[in-house]
Design brief:
Two copies of one chain form a homodimer. The first copy, chain A, is α/β, with parallel strands linked by helices. The first copy, chain A, has 15 helices and 19 strands. In chain A, helix 6 (about 125-150) crosses helix 7 and helix 10 (about 210-220) packs across helix 11 (about 235-245). Chains A and B meet through helix 1, helix 3, helix 6, helix 7 and helix 8 of A and helix 1, helix 3, helix 6, helix 7 and helix 8 of B.
């Protein structure tokens, strides 16, 4: 039924627009589309670019094979001439974008696609799906790692989101500083460290808690994490140390008043001589809960639901808009800016360049968008944000995931201090259209 | 890198639990896991079962092939004995569940998995990912189709969610009564009708609106839907009817005060003699916006973001809990109920049967859960809710998607009238543990 091609992860109207534009001839006009968000989610201070690496793979696999064409034909989506055009589809244009991990603000052109209208319009849905999802998770993840202030965060939200979205979410979280994930496919596909030990079911399976702990330690070693809240926490902690000894790696708390429990369990562990045993907490954590545990003796946070659902904002509101197109059907016709005029949705036509402007101390102070000029010179105190991702149809923007992760850390550090306040506020940088 | 197997769409800890249980011998204890939600999302009246069909495919493809085993080995997730066990993995147990489309309530055992602990525990993450996502979308979709009161709803949220989640979302929406989707893969994979015509980019591509409309009508026929809010709506409607004639299929409004605009555009269309031309509205609609347009001359609703993000509740909070397991390692050991004792998370141990109880008028009045008895007789005025999905490892629960769609309509109709009130309230049926 299915194929590996990404070509049908697309809205029907991309292909009917293509059909109509092929017929009118306008399909071949050189066009520029920009991906941007009109606003950040309410109260958020910055966005995070994520999904770029996945997007490059998806563009490469955007091919209309026989099975795909047969479906489009039989379903009557488009006619013969369009099917023939699609059979030869290969994106030959250019894509620039904010490098993965980079912070962004309202209006930032996260991705710029230049090509014929035909070849660029059909990528809309796929580009937005990938970036809207991954950026939403990465933005939430960044607030969480920032709130965790150096303590490791473990991504464990797979069960709360679509099974493939889970893999992408683990990737996005890693970019924003998560230390590891529970998702094994993310480990296989992206090389992200995976972690996991046991659930309540494992304790309940055995005749008592001691037997369960002994079974786990026998299999996984004393340096494992024992889950201590199936019955009574204090009893479980005592049993855990008796079974595993002072080398017990960690105990996990998954319910109750974590602030109170963490202090009690820490004191109990120390008293039992297990001073090196860590405390891992999990239990519907979000960035606020993580922050509230800052003064508690917690060594790691496991985060699930709130991470994979973007902590209240499961999508990033990115849109894909035609901002310029050739003035006519002539091959070398110059580009003209275009923009929808409807009320309530401001648009800025024309291809833009994007730079981040810094103050004398190297702190970012503005996102500056200006009309693109090929011959623009770099300006001191500004950093160019758009990097080439695809040139002449060739993917040039691939990089290791670790590069995106390192970039996000740098990009967040450059922002004004209020960027990492959790309280609701305005975007931490103003967007200036010059 | 990847394979078609679903085996790694799983949390790391499922496999470490397996490893430890294989070593302790407890892995072979017969076990019963139930999938249920402790509560509905705040204010919601009912849940909708969705994802079952996808789940059956996923269970069938849950296989540890060489590539998968090599990854697990090299990453050090589990040791040799466990790898050997996984190489032969095939689920041989039983699965019962609420039939797809059925409404559910807090505690309803949506899925019951019976098998050895080993074979059942490893399915946890995958089962929850699929059901949590699909049920969240289906629940939102059901409120929307109910608010639309018979007018067709078109799913067009692909761009706002992960690219594969989008396909599953289209499927879930269709179960809950959506008429069609924009997602072409959902059309190919599930046979859901797909719809789409054009976006603002198509108008902006052309030299003016008239040229764009003419190009679209030339390619797609007069019975197409023209998007009339790129510049000025009244001008666009006039141009649309001039270009397409009285046979114009529909106009689409994607911004502005839809209530006001729909009335104005309807009047204008009628005045222009295009009395049969329909009005389609799209623009961040949710169930409340749909309901508020009930008195407006709107013919169809296109719904995107709010649908695929569960209208505020992007995940269904379903959990997978061990509720019973064999008393000992003996092959015929009887089952004993088990449940976690932590505060704040009530659990009801033991395998349960689930029936819906009706009043004399055939209106549902309660969700009744009672300890499972193989010899239980049907009770008049009650309907058994658990149907067999997998028996002895064999998939027996496959059905056409249309069956799930028809079932949801019936299941919703049987509920008390207040089920489809949009205002926040309690679950419309009480859950009674007998």
């Amino acid at each position: 039924m299915d194929t590996a091609t990404t070509a049908l992860l697309t809205d029907h109207y991309e292909l009917t627009m293509l059909e109509a534009a092929l017929r009118s001839g306008a399909a071949h006009r050189r066009s520029v589309f920009e991906v941007f968000a009109r606003r950040l989610p309410d109260g958020r201070r910055y966005g995070v670019t994520a999904g770029t690496g996945r997007l490059l793979d998806a563009i490469e696999n955007f091919r209309f094979d026989d099975e795909t064409l047969t479906f489009l034909d039989e379903a009557g989506v488009v006619g013969r001439a369009t099917l023939d055009w699609l059979a030869g589809y290969r994106f030959t244009g250019n894509v620039w974008g904010y490098a993965e991990g980079e912070c962004w603000f309202p209006g930032s052109p996260l991705v710029v696609v230049e090509g014929s209208f035909a070849e660029a319009v059909v990528l809309e849905t796929l580009i937005l799906s990938i970036l809207n999802h991954d950026a939403a998770v990465a933005a939430a993840a960044s607030r969480m790692t920032s709130a965790a202030a150096g303590r490791p965060c473990i991504e464990m939200g797979s069960r709360r989101t679509h099974e493939e979205a889970a893999v992408a979410a683990a990737r996005a979280a890693y970019i924003s500083g998560f230390a590891s994930t529970s998702n094994l496919r993310a480990g296989q596909r992206y090389g992200i460290p995976t972690r996991g030990t046991s659930a309540h079911a494992f304790t309940l399976l055995h005749d008592d808690e001691r037997e369960a702990f002994a079974a786990q330690v026998a299999a996984l070693g004393a340096d494992t994490t024992l889950l201590v809240d199936t019955y009574d926490v204090a009893t479980a902690v005592r049993t855990a140390v008796e079974v595993a000894g002072h080398e017990l790696g960690a105990v996990r708390l998954d319910s109750g008043d974590l602030l109170l429990l963490a202090h009690r369990v820490r004191a109990q562990l120390d008293e039992l001589g297990a001073a090196k045993t860590r405390i891992v907490v999990t239990s519907d954590l979000d960035e606020y809960a993580i922050a509230s545990l800052r003064a508690a003796p917690v060594d790691a946070y496991g985060v699930g639901t709130q991470l994979v659902t973007g902590s209240g904002h499961p999508t990033a509101s990115l849109v894909y808009k035609l901002v310029a197109r050739a003035m006519s059907d002539e091959p070398d016709a110059p580009l003209v800016p275009v923009a929808k005029k409807s009320p309530g949705k401001p648009s800025h036509g024309g291809r833009k360049s994007a730079v981040r402007r810094y103050d004398a101390d190297g702190v970012a102070e503005a996102e500056v968008l200006r009309p693109f000029r090929a011959d623009a010179e770099p300006v001191p105190g500004e950093r160019e944000l758009l990097v080439p991702l695809v040139l002449g149809g060739k993917i040039v923007g691939r990089e290791p995931l670790s590069a995106a992760r390192a970039r996000h850390e740098r990009s967040r550090e450059e922002l004004p201090l209020s960027a990492t306040q959790l309280s609701r506020g305005e975007p931490v940088l103003p967007t200036i259209y010059e």
